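During the second year of the project, the team shifted from modelling isolated chains to modelling whole assemblies. The rationale, set out in the original proposal, was that interfaces cannot be judged from single-chain predictions alone. As a representative example for this report, we include one of the complexes processed in the last quarter. Its constituent sequences, exactly as entered into the pipeline, are reproduced here:
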Amino acid sequence: KNPTSIENKFYRVTFDPDTGLISNIQNLEKQISLPVNQSYYWYNASSGNEDSSQTSGAYIFRPNQSEPISISQNVRSYLVKNSLVQEVYQNFSAWCSQVVRLYSDQKYLELEWTVGPIPRRDSNGKEVISRFDTNLQTDGLFYTDANGRQILQRRRNSRDTWAFKQTEPVAGNYYPVNSRIFIKDKNIQLTVLTDRSQGGSSIVDGSMELMVHRRLLYDDFRGVGEALLEPGQYMEGLVVRGKHLLVLDTPEASANVHRKLALQQYLSPQIVLSTGQGAPYGKG
Amino acid sequence: TSSSLELRQAMGVAQHHDAVTGTAKQHVNDDYALRLFKGWKACQVVVSNALSSLMGTKENFAFCNLLNISVCPSTEASKTFSVLIYNPLARAVTQYVRLPVNGTLYAVKGPAGESIASEVVPVSKFTKDVRRDKGYAERELVFPGQIPALGFSKFTVEKVSAPERFLGTKVK
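Output from the structure prediction step:
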């Protein structure tokens, strides 16, 4: 049986017993509950089409259709429950897995994802995303940071300073996410903090996605002259592991949480080990 | 002796737009990564010297760069070790530490010798699949570390023998 929930003093995360996916996140302090469906998908990279010969490559993100392909809608999962930490391990496929983690006294939910090596035997370039689907009424708006500094409001299929005609419904709405992305309505804000720069967007209202890994088969003719294949040490593609931190709060209170947390991500404490048997030492 | 100049030079090279965005050829990206690695190796000596100076003892410090895949030879093999956590932020933080270990029970003590709550959790199958032959830790030690602003805390970890099973005595 798939685990059904984990919780600490501040958060409760509920999982769908049939699919094993996250189905609801609650902020227990603020009594906020948000149905969230979180899963992993991949966009099939374009190798060019009738409209344009442009391929997806190192410079260019161009999926060949607007709908991403689900890696799995049913995950195998198991729970490790202790007093300091509770973890649900989710296996989406042989090359995609995730740990949903709640430490006992921390005011955020941690998602540690592991993606790769991305297979290419099917001759498809793949651009892998983590997507959060909610029922928030976001009216085409979402928010991303600008190099970890000010937050910029993004409006789907729109640009502030010129009359914009959208020709790429997915790629044309992707923005850099250096530290965080969020969506909100009047009462609830869902914020995701990243541990590295990624691309992100909100393609439909209430949805938010981040690209975590990509492996492509063609050069994009923008100068690099190579496909973004990255074979890695074992010549089968890179395995990437990273973290997304989720904060669910009111729009008024969220900034106070995500600004501190983002700084702690960027300037994270450094661990050094020793055997503890040192000789006296002075600058002289 | 060492200098942070090597890392600063590598960072200078990596300001090129290809390095920032990842649009270089593979062999150029490999070179960016190698330069950063060499820079970080040089900085480990700088950090060791700084910590020795702050602590007043010269120790054989180890930097575990593969903690994200539960690999650290120092913690996997040792029965006793110290964990120093430096906090570069201007406010105190609590950081959960995860260290790969092979024992089942550990005693963790804080900077003042106080006992710190800790627990040992199994390393996931996903991690074992990813790390290949880099490490073999079966478990991870987890504990919360409180670290002062712009400073460090030292924690000592000691492997505790699991209590022997009470076998009882035969009574005639």
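The helical segments of chain B are 5-13, 17-21, 26-55, 73-77, 125-131. Strands of chain B lie at 57-58, 80-87, 93-101, 106-109, 115-116, 119-122, 139-147, 151-159.
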